[in-house]
Amino acid sequence: MEGEIEPHISIHQVFLILVLKNGILS
Hints:
It contains 1 helix and no strands. The chain has one helix at residues 2-25.
């Protein structure tokens, strides 16, 4: 189960970074 949570966090982090980058670029 822990292994499944690890990749999930990675995807969430990437999404957060993209949103932050978009906000800065806007």
